[in-house]
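Hey,
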Amino acid sequence: MKNVLVVGGAGYIGGCLSDMLIEKGYNVTVFDRLLYEDRFLKEVPFIFGDIRDTDTLVSLSPKYDTIIWLAAIVGDGACSQDPALTHEVNYLAVKRFLDKTKRRIIFPSTCSVYGAQDGLLSEESPTRPLSAYAETKLLAEKTVLDHGGMAFRLGTLFGLGDHYSRLRLDLVLNVLTYKALSEGKITVFGGDQWRPVLAVKDVAAYFVEAVTRDYNDVYNLSMKNIRIKDCAGVYKNIFPELVVEIVDSKFEDLRNYQVTNDKSEKAFIFKPKVSIEAEVHRMVELLKARRIKNPLDPRYYNTHFVKATLDDIRKY
């Protein structure tokens, strides 16, 4: 039985990943700062800590056969609130740890590193990051590969994770679900932008298989490429009375890319299974049952929460 340390394991991906690893028989420990959470009640060994505390992580690392490093400031908007902090958290913390330990880790990068490009993009395509988030992920990805590790370039995630971690309502398919249910209307700006999308549970399943692989490479991960405006059809099928507004204006998010998964399809047995429709139904059930008391709480939106947290710090 391997001992697995999931750094950032209380987050959106980490929640369902820790469950899946335990189901496979791994001994799992979660290391997390609980930035978005007030508590961690899951019955999993837990270490409270900050990834910038390199010495603590270095001292812990010999106890674990595999380290999965999920912790980061995630998203263009959240990272833009303090680019220097983003650089430290998303890149320097990873680099310091790897430089000291020479460890191999499994790491989530992002398809955002491709920026805005036409055509079907592979792992060998040029990278053109347009944000601090993409830039720092690309830097960290290179460092991970230099130390023998594996990196996944993730598409835009959607859906529900485990029963403990928060639902991210700042992700496009998730927020459209909330808007459709609460307002009976969704607004799509432009909508011609392409995104590769993937359910959070499918991401976790890839990481579980990755524990059994010794690959030293980077892989695109997505279920399919979809234009933002084409998502409207999914919601119209689920909400027949839904009003869909397409605003013919340039959206502030300039990213536009499609990716090919040929490389990951050859390297991994697992294939994405979770559909957009299935996860929209699951999110609707959760929201209708009022299991989220206040869906407008900033903690469900990375940008709003990081901004509020930094504003509070700057007051003192």
